[in-house]
Amino acid sequence: xxxNLIGFGVIGKGFARALVRKRTWLREKYGFQxxxxxxxxxxxxxxxxxxxxxxxxxxxxxxxxRVIDCPGAEEMTGLEAIREVDADLVVEVTPTxxxxxxxxxxxxxxxxxxxxxxxxxxxxxxxxxxxxxxxTAKKNGVHLKFEASAGGAMPLINLANEILxxxxxxxxxxxxxxxxxxxxxxxxxxxxxxxxxxREAQELGIAETDPTYDISGSDTAAKLVILTNAIMGKNTxxxxxxxxxxxxxxxxxxALAKEDxxxxxxxxxxxxxELEVAPKLVPMNHPLNVDGTLNVATFQTDLAGEITIVGTxxxxxxxxxxxxxxxxxxxxxxxx
Length: 336
Ligand code: HSE
Prior knowledge:
- The chain is of the alpha/beta class.
- It is built from twelve helices and twelve strands.
- L-homoserine (HSE) binds next to helix 7.
């Protein structure tokens, strides 16, 4: 399988590292031998029709931080790479933009119109144009997979749509943002300040390129929309979500909640057709009370009752667990 990799930040580099680390294992276990034939970031593209040497590309980008400085790199955009470099699948991991969805939206549409499968962790396009994207995939007979976009390593979409396919999912409630959960946990347990704790989350590589997306609740809202559409078969968009972030949570509010046996968590909920993101008081012994960068989601189902899954919602390797699982599923399906 030939892959165009679009985006070479934390997730894109993590993808390359995961392929290097698991190359032999993937071949021995699945007979899967992916070749990354192009890598693009905002500065340019490096191409090798026969497959790039990922270790060399990683080490040259680590030196300068830019793809354009790799030997042989061209001033070719990601969009041009999708159009011009022959491949079966596009891994789209550029930063999320929930205002326009770009550049990810154009990358995904162009890829699918060119007959390429798409695997992505990019929330913006899915939260704004879910129907258009899924219809484009269908029309062009390609797969569009996005397990990594909501809940990172937690297999929420596959769990609901594959393992629980006999159940109707009636509601979803969860903590879907690691950055805000980390900030709230540290403020609760150690009384740290907001700004310094946000910087720590950025150093962990889990905050968005623009961390206001995390703090304002936008990131949670985008993920809630993706889960609602993918799991409950709805056609909601980011604009349907009532959103309140953690900007106004004070150390005093956290201390008061603690005295009464509660923690404050940024919770996303879809219930009775309403989508909401807001800080909520969660009892300390409740399953939604997970610490640090952890995420959690509870599905209320018609047959199985409540199912709660806890896991890592961000991070270079963790997010690539979901990306790799989507790619392998496409690989298995396209082999028939
Ligand atoms: N900024 C996001 C988070 C990354 O903190 O959860 C994963 O989408």
